[in-house]
Amino acid sequence: MAEKWFGMEREDIQWFPTIDNDKCTNCETCLKKCSHGVFENINGKVKVVKPFNCVVGCTGCDPLCPEGAISHPPKDYLVNLIKTINIKNRCGCNCKED
């Protein structure tokens, strides 16, 4: 999948699903519906195995989960990330975060 997102390394962006194992019934709906290979069934348990394959901003699997076991970071995380990228791109000084 994408190695960069708007110039940022994909691994630096903490956008991917998490599974609440107390709610998950391992129905595999997420695994079947996600076309990016984020999920796998390992020993009868659905797991997030390739988190950085998740498309930044996508939450498509959240509403599909019949148990409400899947969540993503709050949208505010993404909004703040985009603001940061826009500021750095306008600045032109190749800012680096500490």
Written overview of the protein:
The structure is a single chain. With 98 residues, this protein is an alpha+beta fold. The protein has helices spanning 29-33, 61-64, 75-91, and strands spanning 4-5, 8-9, 18-19, 39-42, 45-48, 70-71. It has a two-stranded antiparallel ribbon. Strands 3-6 form a two-stranded antiparallel sheet. It has a two-stranded antiparallel ribbon with strand order 4-5. It starts with a strand and ends in a 7-residue tail after the last helix.
Number of domains: 1
Tell me the strand order in the biggest sheet: 1-2
**CATH topology assignment:** Alpha-Beta Plaits
Termini separation (Å)? 27 Å
Q: Average pLDDT value?
A: 88
Uncertain regions: pLDDT < 50 for 5+ in a row? none
CATH A-level architecture: 2-Layer Sandwich
Any idea what the shape is?
A: elongated
* Percentage of β-strand residues: 15-25%
Number of strands: 6
Report the CATH C-level class: Alpha Beta
Taking all Cα atoms into account, the compactness measure Rg is 16 Å
The structural class is alpha+beta
Write the element-wise H/E pattern from the N-terminal end onward: EEEHEEHEH
State the major sheet.
2 strands, antiparallel
What is the overall number of helices? Answer: 3
What is the gist of this entry?
The chain is α+β, with helices and mostly antiparallel strands and 98 residues long. The protein has one domain: Alpha-Beta Plaits (2-Layer Sandwich).
Give me some keywords for this one.
98 residues; two-stranded antiparallel sheet
